[in-house]
Amino acid sequence: MGLPSAGFSVTVRLKIQNKPGNFLKIVSEIAEKEASTAEVVLLYSDFNYNIRDITINCRSEVHSRRVVAALKNLPNIELLEWRDDTFEMHRAGKLEVRGRTLLTTTDELSRAYTPGVARVCKQIVKSPADVFNYTIKSNSVAVVTDGSAVLGLGNIGPEAALPVMEGKAVLFKQFAGINAFPICLKTQDSEKIIEIIKEISPVFGGINLEDISAPRCFEIENRLRGELDIPVFHDDQHGTAIVVLAGLYNALKIVDKKLENIKIVVNGFGAGGVACTRMLLNAGAKNIIPCDSVGIVYRGRKERMNPVKEELIQLTNPDNIKGSVADALKGADAFIGVSRPGAITRDMVASMNKNPIVFALANPDPEILPDQISDIARVIATGRSDYANQVNNVLCFPGLFRGALKARAYDITAAMKVAAATAIAECVTPDELHENYIIPSVFKAEIAKKVAEAVERAAIQDGVARTKAAR
Predict the structure, then answer these.
(1) DSSP secondary structure, 49-77, as one string
(2) Residue 174: enclosing H or E segment and its boundaries?
(3) For residue 168, what are the contacts with CB-CB under 8 A and spacing of at least 6?
(4) How far apart are CA 352 and CA 454, in angstroms?
(5) Same domain (yes/no): 342, 400
(6) Number of domains in the chain
(7) Are residues 161 and 271 in the same domain?
(8) In the beta sheet, which residues pair with residue 70?
(9) Packed helices 447-461 and 414-426: angle between N→C axes, nearest 10 degrees
(10) Which of 140, 206, 368, 450 is most buried, taking the most CB atoms under 10 A from its CB?
């Protein structure tokens, strides 16, 4: 069932008789129910009783209800109220719109709106590039989904996808100061999605595609990149791939190996696996063995192939080996899993080369739990926050878009992605680098800034920037 997590936390408000031992009963009951006390706040106290808010991390929604019921039945303690903290955070949404200018006089109103605003409109007609100087476009991103492949939830539709897109917009603002807008489309027709995004693009400096199912996501992104003059980025593909490459750079420093010399198995050949493979190739990897639900992808295979797989197999699996993921892992130096829980076993990891690197990134349950291989794998990463080395896209997309917006880039190139990965890796200093710290904390303050600077430089070098030089 997993460890207690803030994602399933509840806060209970308890009226406790002011007698020695009563608070200990509460803490002991929480521990006995295998939950974790996260925070305690004293709201009121007198000679007879006190009132406390206690936040408790639980394992699941069902588990949280059991914990609340157990506390309700304790003697000398009254449950006044309780709340599910995640739902409380989402109440009425996580976003709001605020003006950058506070209008307090008629003069200010005349400048912000009519008649003064007409002068700015005329200037943009005269010089269309000034839309970046005088509107929100210079610092705005659309976060667009059709709700067809949301997290591990699948095709849940646009309304149910909205909380995720709101969360993404919050992260853009928190980590890079970018104004992001959640846009959930009530269509899964690729042509309609492409057309809608093109029609709304004048407002935005960039488009972040999110949670759109494969293989449609490839076509949508490729078409939009060719038809728009602002950067388009499918984060589920490239964000994961960039952070994977950053982590792999640092893992290879620990095991003293070179990217161009190692054998890498990529398991899961959907959007994430394809993007990881392309990213690794762009970074210089020479021996990548892609695997999917059928097994190793090889030249000449007929089962469950598509144009994307056919394209990439020309650049991977140099010896054209066949078989299962177990066969692929024999003698491999690194495993990158973007597939399903339990996809590999301890014996498979044991068959890998000396000092194996294992990135088991399936969420919420990885391809293999770190505890099962901690004695044989040298470096392990997952997509979860309750294990070391979390591969988290928030390390990438805020800084990447910040750099692209500063450069006023019209595309995001392979070199910009590699630059982002390198910058993330370099945020782990040589003194900090360790098997359990190859990927920096998302709360390390300088990450977005360093990624943005690296991406802006790469955009200018690749000739996709409207600006002349990095600031």
Answers:
(1) EEEEEEEEEESSHHHHHHHHHHHHTSTTE
(2) helix 157-176
(3) 143, 180, 182, 208, 210, 235
(4) 34
(5) yes
(6) 4
(7) no
(8) none
(9) 150
(10) 206
Q: pLDDT of 410-425, one tens digit each? A: 999 999 999 999 999 9
249 catalytic per annotation: no
| In contact, 397 and 455? CB cutoff 8 Å | no
Structure tokens at 109: 């109103």
290, 415: one domain: yes
pLDDT at 94: 95
Kindly state whether residues 432 and 301 are assigned to the same domain. yes
Contacts of residues 60-65 at CB distance under 8 Å and 24 or more positions apart, as own/partner, are 60/1, 60/2, 60/8, 61/8, 63/1, 63/8, 63/33, 63/34, 63/35, 64/8, 64/9, 64/10, 64/35
Give the integer Cα–Cα distance in Å for 290 and 270: 11
The two structure tokens encoding residue 403: 């750099």
Catalytic residue among 33, 137, 168, 406: 168
Instruction: Compute the distance between CA of residue 208 and CA of residue 232 in angstroms, rounded to an integer.
Output: 6
Query: In this predicted model, what pLDDT tens digit does every residue of 210-220 receive, in sequence order?
Result: 999 988 999 99
Catalytic residue among 19, 113, 173, 186: 113
pLDDT of residue 228: 98
The β-bridge partners of 53 are: 13, 41
Report the distance separating Cα 416 and Cα 422, nearest Å. 10
> What is the rounded distance in angstroms from the CA atom of residue 464 to the CA atom of residue 404?
9
The question of whether 113 is a catalytic residue gets the answer yes
pTM of the model: 0.91
Range of the domain at 60: 5-90
Q: pLDDT (tens digit, 9 = 90+) per residue, 342-351?
A: 999 999 999 9
Closest CA to 400 of 431, 424, 377: 424
Task: List residues bridging with 143 in a β-sheet.
Answer: 182, 208
- The string of pLDDT tens digits covering residues 78-115 is 999 999 999 999 999 999 999 999 999 999 999 999 99
Q: What is the rounded distance in angstroms from the CA atom of residue 374 to the CA atom of residue 364? A: 19
Whether 68 is in a domain gets the answer yes
Q: In what order do the strands lie in the sheet with 179-184?
A: 179-184, 140-145, 206-209, 232-234
The conformational region for residue 9 under phi > 0 = left, psi -120 to 50 = alpha, else beta, is beta
241 and 281 Cβ atoms separated by less than 8 Å? no
Strand partners, 11: 55, 83
Asked if the model's pLDDT at residue 366 lies above 80, the reply is: yes
